[in-house]
Amino acid sequence: MSKFMMDRLNALQAYVPGEQPQDKTYVKLNTNECPFPPSPYATRLARQAAGSLNLYCDPECGVLASVAAETFGVSKEQMIFTNGSDEVLDFAFLAFCGESCPALFPDITYGFYPVFASLHGVPYREIPLNEDLCVDITPYLSLKGTLFLANPNAPTGVALGRAEIEKLLQARPDSILVVDEAYVDFGGESALPLIEKYDNLLVTRTFSKSRSLAGGRLGIGFACPALIADLKKVKYSVNPYNVNSMTAAAGVGALLDQEYFAKNVAVIQENRAYVTAALKERGFTVLPSSANFIFAKSPDITGETLYKKLKEKGVLVRYFAKERIKAYVRITIGTKEQSDVLISKIDEIAEESK
After folding, report:
1. Structural domain containing residue 338
2. Same domain membership, residue 70 and residue 216
3. Is residue 215 packed enough to be buried (19+ CB in 10 Å), middle (13-18) or exposed (0-12)?
4. Number of other residues whose CB lies within 10 A of the CB of residue 67
5. Which of 266, 292, 327, 343 is the most buried (most CB within 10 A)?
């Protein structure tokens, strides 16, 4: 750190992204990317858009907005497009949290929430998950503040149903609920239909996972027009040209190619069941996942040791040193071939430990 960094940021604990080592080729199951490339249609439209990069991109993402409105059954006024869904979350912390309105979220969840809160000087409270690492909505029903819920949750993969989300909205009509649906396409029940009924709901989605655009950085927020107007005021005060032309074009292609999207999601769901069953056969505890990853622990080896030994054998998974979950590793669901490599390496580790 330099001597010029402001004191208020010295203690900031920055978000730690999944490692991207370049020393050799890995089976990469640590950052929840889709193992399949973008839709060929998305790639083609992005390539065409590259020809006009001398011009500023459309800050309203007009073509993308029209296609997304048709895809999701909403109006253009109910959407905002962002540089990944992290940016719409960032805008939400700026717009809807402050000294008099703290942020609320589980103690085990997406690691960016406490970072955003600390970065913007927002007080926050972490509510412990149940012993089974599920979200219990009961403590939140009487709490005031802006509530952020990843659903399905990360890194556990466990999801709440829409009925529980609606209970929270009804119990807290004067507080905003942000439902982060980065992984919902893999089996969760979306809260999106509820934006027509509740003016205190913001739903966020990403194109990074199920639509294979992690490197494109495209996110979307859904809410009533008044909340979207609030977020756009922040956007136009920070970064009006936040979605580049190639990414917006790729987003159009990704949404129009529904067959490709549905096929990839189905394969990942099949592979998730396959890996889950294989690990359970080997004595692992695997939490019920509605995401494109699983959260698993071995009865015989610590999470940290398993992570390190798999990395030595060329397989990357994600390990979190946090006390309540340090026994677990998070495993992204890849192709069938990648899944078989993972299982074979786990068997090798087990044999070596005898």
Report:
1. 19-37+259-352
2. yes
3. exposed
4. 17
5. 292
